[in-house]
Every structure is written in structure tokens, then in C-alpha cells.
């Protein structure tokens, strides 16, 4: 039987690749595991959220259920207010402190309440990993204001905001040359109204991100943060050695000739401009990362009257770990991901364990953007097509990123989202593992070259267990609760299916078959015992 299933999985993967090459979205409806959310209100998202006092505050209550829906919040700090129709909390918190807030969502079918701890103070950004979208893995250097606005609208139309997805980030490709009142980088013609774009994103309760790098030019060939002239101008733009969007013409100027540090720095000018545009997130991209460049941009971002998430890219060296934890909220642990099982599995299972000791709330190792949905990196590589990952590989991808507490940053064209993709992105029980307020690293408990079992302790006392089949054939994988350190009988809950699947005695083995390159994502409860132990536990 297992060989028939292996053949079936191979055929499904072959069909998926064939359809992908044809540019059509494959029908993966039979692989959907996540049940549809109920029509009654359900508040999703993290149980803790932090920002600085005295700066712009923005948090949208993530709640699924039938609309219209109204919202309330008890215990908000002074200076913050809630729009009861949109669920958007905004304003400026006046005083630092820890505030226990009760959120409530109500529609015609009922209501739901959930506690949210607001941490107002310095160094309180990203107490859980960010969830959002970034442009590179889909549009590459072709990204435009129209693209960004369409993705923001899709967040609302698809209901992703109801599960905590909130960032709309521009990657490389928005830059022109220096100018304006700060002599900062100005947007090119693809972005006719950057302030208007920011206002639109914020009006939806979402957040706005941008991109830069410390070299003379960025990876794509746009202007960077240092210059060889005191005016900071991009000489290849002034000389016309660029395309219509002011990216360097590679036939005239080698792109990598711009990948160098120059003596004149403009981090402060750009940070002021980003603050005026109300930017919430900044990705800073170069390699190898160095202490000086990391700190210079940190100082610039700290100097403005705005909280701006600081994300470092790429391939961060472990020797810089202490500095990264001090100065940044995020740092990329790898080079660029691709939509292949080799790329995803190498990143997930071979490159993250070394960062286990350097993960905490507000400081997150980043396993890179996700390659779910339709991706394509703009016109410079294969055109936008459905991911080449099989359905089981996509489940493994999302599961491991949640276990790692890695940022969940999509890179796909959401206007082409199908029901299968939405089922991956709107499972609140799966997302809760990523957003767990402890932010602990997963530990590999069992495994060899064919499988890997990871466990992760959660704030509610439960244990997340992810059993990955790394082989090309179906594989039976299991565990004994006692061997995981658990001293009571356990309820086994399947997080993707959102259902309890077994009750297991603490000393007995539970196992199941896992598809090739697939995963079973489970939660055990009650976890470790808190009361007085009785009897024999061996």
C-alpha cells in the first residue's frame, strides 16, 4: 500500500510541475486540511504586542467571522483609541508600561473576547515575528505602486488581515536618485505618490515597508546609502547609464561594480524621509554584514520620531549574532530562497540550528521569504507561476517556519491566490505556534537523513511536535510522550486539521504515516504536569 501511495504522490508532483510550467494554477483542493473558519467571531493573532511611547501606534484586531463586525477594547493606555467599525487601534501611547487589554469582536451571530498584553516601552518592537508580504519573490525589480496597492487590497479581500498578516513591504526597485528636502532617495516613476501609497496601506490597518543597502548601489543596481560624491548622486543615473526606472544598465556598468562602500554616508537623510513617509519596516541588504554598517543605520532609525522595524539581509554571520540581537529585530540567516524542495529543506533543516541560542522576542533569525503561491522574481527569471513545491512540501515549508518563529513574509502574487494557498495562510492554530509569546527555538528530538522530529514548548503549557518525512517514500513516524519529557497522558491534536486525533498514555507510542516531503503538525496537551506527581513514571 505504501508503494501505491508513493506512486500516487509522484504522479501528483509530476502533474503539478507540468501545470506550473504551463503557467496554470493547479487544482490542489483535495489537499486542503484546514477547515473553514466559523461565521461567528474569532479573534486571532498574538497575545502580546509592543511599541514605543509617544510615537504613532497602529494595531488592527485580527478577527475572522461574518461581517459586519464591531470591536471594543478595555484597558487601552491613554493616548490610544479604537475605531469600533474597523478594529484599528491608533494614536500615541502617552506612558510606558505593561497594559492588560481585553479585545472583543461581535457580529449578529455572537462575540469573542481575547486578552492582549500591550508592552509600551523602548525595545518592545516585534515581540512576535512579523507577518506580511514583500515584493521581490514575485515582481523582482519590476515592482510598482500599483503592485503594492493591489497586494494591500488583496490582504483585505482575502481576509488575511483577519489572521494577523499586516506588512506590505517594497523590496529593491523603487529608487531613483537623491533629492527633496532631506536630499534623500526619491522614488522612480513606478511610484508616482509614495506618501499616497503609505496612506492607503495605513488606512487599511496595514503597515508599510521599504528597502535599501549600505553600498554605492543595491543588488539590483539602484542607488544605495553611501556615495563617492558629497552630493550623494547616482552618477550612472546622471550619465544615462540606466533604464527608464533608473536601474543601472548592466551592458554599460557591471552591476557588481556598485557593490562597494564609499566615504559619503546618507543614512540619516533617508531615515528622515522614511519617517515622513510613515514607513514601518526597513530591509537593509548587503553581504557580508558588518558591525559598522549595521550600527550606522540603527542610529539613523533611532534618531527619528517613529518606530521602524530594522531587518538585516542577507546570510548573517554567526560571529555577528550578539550585535544583531542588540541592534536589529530581524536578520536573514541564508541567501535567497527558491521554490524547490532542495532550497526549502536545506534552509529549514541544515541552516537554522546554529541560531537556536539567538532567538527571543524582539530578535528573530529570518529563514527568508516564503515561496508559497505564485512566484517568479519579475522578468529576469522564470515568469510568475505557481510554486514548484508540491502540496506536502508547502505544508512542511509553512510548518517549519512556524516552528522556527521565523518571520512569515509572503512573496507571491496574491491576486492569483487559490483556496489551497488560503488554507495554508489562515489556519489560526498553526499561526499561533509562530506567534507564541515565548518565542522559543524548536529542538530536534529525533531524526536521521530520512526524517526529523522537532518539539517546541508553548506559552500555554502545550508542546508543538512537527514530524517531517525527508524521504521520497511514505514513512511511519511517531513518539512516546514520556520520551519527550511528558509525565501525563496526552491529547494529540492535529493542528492542520484542527481536530483531536488521539488520546495517548504517557508511556505508549503514537505513530502515523507521513507523506514524502510532508509533515504531521501536532500539539500535545496538557504538556508537563504542574501538580504533585503520583504513582510511577518510568
Topology:
Elements: H1 2-21, E1 42-43, E2 48-51, E3 57-60, E4 63-64, E5 70-74, E6 80-82, E7 88-91, E8 97-107, E9 110-120, E10 131-134, H2 136-139, H3 145-157, E11 167-169, E12 175-179, E13 184-187, H4 194-203, E14 207-212, E15 226-227, H5 235-238, E16 264-265, H6 267-276, E17 281-285, H7 291-302, E18 309-313, H8 321-327, E19 330-332, H9 341-350, E20 364-366, E21 374-375, E22 385-386, H10 391-403, E23 408-410, H11 419-425, H12 428-434, E24 443-447, E25 451-457, E26 463-469, E27 475-479, E28 490-494, E29 499-504, E30 510-514, E31 519-525
Parallel strand pairs: 2-9, 10-11, 10-23, 11-14, 14-17, 17-18, 18-19, 19-20
Antiparallel strand pairs: 1-4, 3-7, 5-8, 6-7, 8-9, 12-13, 15-16, 21-22, 24-25, 25-26, 26-31, 27-30, 28-29, 28-31
Helix pairs in contact: 3-4, 6-7, 9-10, 10-12
Amino acid at each position: 500500500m505504501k508503494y501505491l501511495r508513493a506512486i500516487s504522490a509522484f504522479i501528483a508532483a509530476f502533474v503539478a510541475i507540468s501545470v506550473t510550467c504551463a503557467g496554470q494554477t493547479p487544482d490542489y483542493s483535495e489537499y486542503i486540511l484546514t477547515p473553514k473558519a466559523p461565521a461567528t467571531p474569532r479573534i486571532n493573532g498574538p497575545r502580546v504586542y509592543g511599541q514605543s511611547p509617544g510615537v504613532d501606534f497602529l494595531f488592527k484586531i485580527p478577527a475572522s467571522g461574518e461581517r459586519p463586525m464591531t470591536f471594543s477594547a478595555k484597558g487601552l493606555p491613554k493616548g490610544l483609541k479604537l475605531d469600533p467599525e474597523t478594529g484599528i487601534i491608533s494614536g500615541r501611547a502617552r506612558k510606558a508600561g505593561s497594559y492588560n487589554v481585553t479585545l472583543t469582536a461581535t457580529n449578529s451571530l455572537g462575540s469573542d473576547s481575547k486578552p492582549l498584553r500591550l508592552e509600551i516601552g523602548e525595545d518592545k518592537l516585534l515581540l512576535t515575528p512579523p507577518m506580511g508580504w514583500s515584493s521581490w519573490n514575485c515582481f523582482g525589480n519590476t515592482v510598482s505602486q500599483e503592485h503594492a496597492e493591489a497586494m494591500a487590497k488583496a490582504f483585505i479581500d482575502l481576509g488575511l488581515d483577519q489572521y494577523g498578516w499586516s506588512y506590505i513591504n517594497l523590496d529593491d526597485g523603487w529608487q531613483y536618485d537623491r533629492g527633496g528636502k532631506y536630499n534623500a532617495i526619491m522614488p522612480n516613476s513606478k511610484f508616482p505618490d509614495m506618501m499616497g501609497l503609505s496612506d492607503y496601506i495605513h488606512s487599511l490597518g496595514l503597515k508599510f515597508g521599504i528597502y535599501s543597502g549600505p553600498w554605492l548601489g543595491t543588488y539590483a543596481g539602484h542607488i544605495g546609502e553611501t556615495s563617492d560624491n558629497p552630493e550623494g548622486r547616482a552618477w550612472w543615473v546622471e550619465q544615462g547609464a540606466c533604464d527608464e526606472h533608473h536601474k543601472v544598465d548592466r551592458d554599460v556598468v557591471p552591476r557588481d561594480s556598485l557593490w562597494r562602500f564609499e566615504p559619503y554616508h546618507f543614512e540619516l537623510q533617508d531615515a528622515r524621509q522614511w519617517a515622513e513617509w510613515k514607513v514601518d519596516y526597513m530591509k537593509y541588504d548587503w553581504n557580508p554584514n558588518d558591525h559598522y554598517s549595521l550600527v550606522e543605520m540603527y542610529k539613523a532609525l533611532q534618531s527619528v520620531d517613529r518606530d521602524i522595524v530594522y531587518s538585516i539581509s542577507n546570510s548573517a554571520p554567526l560571529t555577528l549574532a550578539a550585535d544583531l540581537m542588540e541592534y536589529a529585530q530581524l536578520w536573514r540567516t541564508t541567501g535567497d530562497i527558491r521554490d524547490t524542495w532542495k532550497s526549502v529543506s536545506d534552509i529549514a533543516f541544515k541552516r537554522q540550528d546554529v541560531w537556536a541560542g539567538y532567538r527571543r522576542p524582539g530578535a528573530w533569525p529570518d529563514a527568508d521569504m516564503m515561496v508559497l503561491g505564485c512566484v517568479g522574481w519579475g522578468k529576469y527569471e522564470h515568469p510568475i507561476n505557481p510554486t514548484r513545491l508540491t502540496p506536502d512540501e508547502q505544508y512542511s515549508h509553512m510548518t517549519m517556519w512556524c516552528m522556527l518563529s521565523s518571520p512569515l513574509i509572503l512573496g507571491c502574487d496574491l491576486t492569483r491566490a487559490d483556496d489551497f494557498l488560503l488554507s495554508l495562510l489562515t489556519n489560526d492554530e498553526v499561526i499561533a505556534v509562530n506567534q507564541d509569546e515565548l518565542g522559543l527555538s524548536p529542538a530536534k528530538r529525533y531524526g536521521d537523513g530520512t526524517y526529523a522530529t522537532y518539539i517546541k514548548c508553548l506559552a500555554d503549557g502545550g508542546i508543538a511536535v512537527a514530524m517531517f518525512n525527508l524521504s521520497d517514500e511514505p514513512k511511519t513516524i511517531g513518539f512516546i510522550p514520556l520520551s519527550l519529557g511528558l509525565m501525563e497522558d496526552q491529547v494529540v491534536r492535529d493542528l492542520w486539521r484542527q481536530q483531536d486525533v488521539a488520546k495517548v498514555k504517557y508511556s505508549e507510542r503514537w505513530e502515523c504515516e507521513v507523506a514524502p516531503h510532508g509533515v504531521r503538525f501536532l500539539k500535545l496537551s496538557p504538556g508537563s504536569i504542574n501538580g504533585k506527581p503520583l504513582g510511577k513514571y518510568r
